Amino acid sequence: MSAALAEVLAAELDRPIPAGTRPMVDALAAKGGGTVAAVLFYGSILRTGDLDGILDFYVLVDSLRAWHGSPGLALATRLLPPTVEYWEVPVDGRILRAKVAVMRPDQFARAVRPGSLDTTIWARFAQPARLAYARDAAARNKAAGLVATATTTACAWAARLGPDQGTPLDYWDALFRHTYAAELRVETGERAVSIVGHDPARYRDLFRPALAQAGLDWREVGGGALAPALTPAQRKAARRGWALRRLAGKALNVSRLAKAAFTFVGGVDYITWKIERHSGVRLEMTPWQRRHPILSAPLLLWQLRRQGAIR
């Protein structure tokens, strides 16, 4: 691996996590015991430190059965990773909330490799992250290598999908426009490119060493701009490859949403909290409705509409 890339990413992963979030990390590590290899923390709260929001984690585990305690959930995660859970941890009179994605390290590795049809995970971890927990030095090195692979994959696609020449930020902007378009999202492409604006120096510093790690040459064209050494035929092939990934991304999103209807542990609590946070309306559910949220959905939607939570 490029020494420059490894150095930048290792320093970033080892930065302290936001104050007050450690109890959630400790709870995640404790649940899985020895099967938890690493806990990666990412998302907007790294920037804002707003503990009233949702913390975002990926938990990499050696044994899905040991983590889930259910053969059905373990099978679902093997077939279509990750499986997402909603967590609440009380700390000093307040509630920490987290969205937790669970998968094995080898599944993560397949998702971030350059040939993956799934753009979701490498696009997430080309952005800033923290290694909030590692079981040992080997697990730490493995997790850091996976994040480096995600960044390398992202930069290689950025070079192929971006302009013939431009600054590193031009390529990152092009990349995040494409990755957001490949997912089912409510945010616009403008929201996607604003990611780069939060720390432009970071994205500038990563681009060239990540290109080198991906085996792509370039030439400097002045003014901080560069031109990747790609032929028209290579760019055309990249566009065809991305069209396939865009189709696959939509299909994967739909499949994961369908799966989440049955496997999202704590999903009812997450949805009710989200509704209350954004509308001020607290949704009271009966025990039967909590056990059967899909069957209850029509009545619950009607109640929310009547109370003005949705229009």
Q: Largest sheet, order of strands side by side?
A: 3-4-2-1-5
Q: Which oligomeric form is depicted?
A: single chain
What structural class do the secondary elements suggest? alpha+beta
Number of DSSP helical runs: 15
Let me know the largest β-sheet.
Answer: 5 strands, mixed
- Indicate the radius of gyration in whole angstroms: 21 Å
What percentage of residues falls in helices of 4 or more residues?
Answer: 55-70%
Can you offer a commentary on this structure?
- It is a single chain.
- This protein has two domains: 3-265, 2-Layer Sandwich (Beta Polymerase, domain 2), CATH 3.30.460; 266-311, no CATH class.
- It is of the alpha+beta class.
- The chain has helices at residues 3-13, 22-32, 45-48, 64-68, 71-79, 105-112, 120-125, 137-161, 168-181, 189-197, 200-214, 232-263, 267-279, 287-291, 293-306; strands at residues 36-42, 54-61, 83-91, 94-103, 129-134, 218-222, 225-228.
- Strand 3 and strand 4 (94-103) form a beta hairpin.
- The chain is 58% helix and 16% strand.
- The radius of gyration is 21 Å and the shape is globular.
- It has 15 helices and seven strands.
- Strands 3-4-2-1-5 form a five-stranded mixed sheet, sandwiched between helices. It has a two-stranded antiparallel sheet with strand order 6-7.
- Helix 1 packs across helix 8 (137-161), helix 8 (137-161) packs across helix 9 and helix 8 (137-161) crosses helix 11.
In short:
The protein has 311 residues and is an alpha+beta fold.
